[in-house]
Write a structure and sequence with these properties.
With about 50 residues, this protein is an all-alpha fold. It is built from three helices and no strands.
Length: about 50
């Protein structure tokens, strides 16, 4: 997000938007990863 701010400040608006949209993407991937680790993606189909 800092890189996006710098790009916006120097007038690279298109690149600032492109770079700025990656932060929420990585945050969502992190939340998904945490949920899968906690609950397991195949907890019902395990033969334990």
């Amino acid at each position: 997000m800092g890189a996006s701010l710098v790009l916006k400040a120097v007038g690279e608006d298109d690149w600032a938007l492109f770079v700025g949209q990656w932060a929420p993407t990585f945050l969502i991937i992190g939340v998904y990863n945490k949920l899968v680790k906690q609950h397991g993606s195949d907890s019902l189909s395990r033969a334990e």
